[in-house]
User: Fold these one by one.
Assistant:
Number 1:
Amino acid sequence: MADVFVLAGPPGSGKGTQAKLLAPKLGVPHISLGDLLREAVRNRTRVGEIAKGYLDAGKLVPDQVAIDVAEEAVTKKECKNGFVIDGFPRTLEQAVLFDKLLGKLKFNLKKVLYIDISLNVILQRLTGRRSCSGCGAVFNLQFNPPRKEGTCDECGGPLRQRHDDTEEVIKVRYDVYREQTTPLIKYYSKAGKLVQIDGSKPVNDVFKDVSEAIGI
Ligand code: AP5
């Protein structure tokens, strides 16, 4: 049975950053629900049309939309040896349906890595985040600045700020997380899958903790 790792936690906790380090180390794909939804918005697909308003407002897209997008991604053949997924599941409903889906596809949910940090650090990190519109590389003006302002170190593409990375929307996202996602802590601890990780340390130290927690 192929293993699946979930990266969970509040907005800006470093789910994406850690997933991008973990997936190549495990030799499996990284799936980001947020990235897939933003791509759908950019491509003006049917899912994108539904998702746009939710993303801009910092609210969760309806569970069925999130589940459909996740299912389409994890059933691709690249995922047959397992995958790392970040930003999904985010509600109890999604978690229950994800368990069913993994069972049906014969995947083993190995661990849910729950990265936690405070709202103050979240605000600092997200208002300073810049992403490359070419290759998707993520920088931070304070913690990991690009060598040349506004330009991606990896591909030279232009760096952009996400629409939902304003202080007002970040606070909405945090409230939504507290209300709808924190119940997953209990759900996955009961299932013996949860590992809590202190996300306030530097990126490499967090990754060391992640690696130790899953024995790689
Ligand atoms: P999504 O894109 O998943 O956003 P999020 O959960 O708010 O998380 P972020 O991507 O903002 O943060 P992250 O934890 O990945 O942090 P990152 O590594 O980038 O979702 C966006 C929207 O899509 C949602 O609001 C919702 O509308 C919708 N959606 C997505 N999934 C859904 C679902 N399942 N159901 C319903 N709706 C869904 O790091 C952040 C910054 O900090 C970067 O600049 C990075 O360089 C820096 N950084 C990272 N780690 C460290 C560190 N250790 N030290 C210093 N800086 C660091």
Number 2:
Amino acid sequence: MNHLSVNHLTGIRNLTENDLNLIFQAATEFKEVINRPIKKVPSLRDFTVANLFFENSTRTRLSFELAEKRLSADIVNFTAGNSSVKKGETLTDTVNNILAMKVDMVVMRHPHPGAPQFLANKINTSVINAGDGTHEHPTQALLDAFSLKQRHGDLAGMNVAIVGDIRHSRVAISNILCLKKLGANVRVCGPKTLIPKHIATMGVEVSHNLDATLQWCDVANMLRIQMERQDKSVPYFPSLREYATEFGLNKQRLGALSKPITIMHPGPINRGVEITSDAADSEHSIVLEQVENGVAVRMAVLYLLAMKR
Ligand code: CP
């Protein structure tokens, strides 16, 4: 099939293997486009996308906006902080008002898990989840997998470690779902308090030993501690210094490995906590490739969903 099986992108769990391949194929073509002197194509001309951000973002918001512009779409941007949400307007009312202005697609980030799906159930317009609470961040997982495929080819059989605050991470959940669909072996690593007990049911290994995990993996995806989502009354680890000692990636740890590994991070990075600068900026880090590929992957998702309308 040459079209997506879904009308919305609310999570990786709803995508088929064919959907993933279609997105990667389109992203490969769009990556070529955005590296040309003229980076724009008319694919979404006369198409209007609303970017609704109810939570802070740098990479995802800019990346979607750039992807939409490269596809020649018209754009409206909404951030909750300076909107009538502050006056008590509901999510449904906010979105219905925006849709009344004839918007064709909605990109949405929201602190509450399920908010994009709630919206998708209520409106005819396609909804793309740009991160919903601790639930999913599908385009991050797609760009991560695409970046790995560009570096390493087929991901089947590859050992990928996801390290850090798994409990509060939508990136971890979407990455696990995506990597498993592509046949990779996935191990999560972090303190017991930051790894949910049910995670093994997703078909991943669990480790609390970073050095052993680094020896096992081909790729380490380092996640930040999501302080903003943690219950402040319950300390999950004694101190940031202790966390960095046990679970932080640094040049010393990398130097002790028998082979080089690929280093990933979705950003924003807390340098000196989950990763030191010498590791984040090393020759094996693909952090900025992830950001570049984010535009191509989001162009692919926008284009393929628009083709279904
Ligand atoms: N990776 C990511 O979602 O970053 P932002 O929160 O800056 O969008």
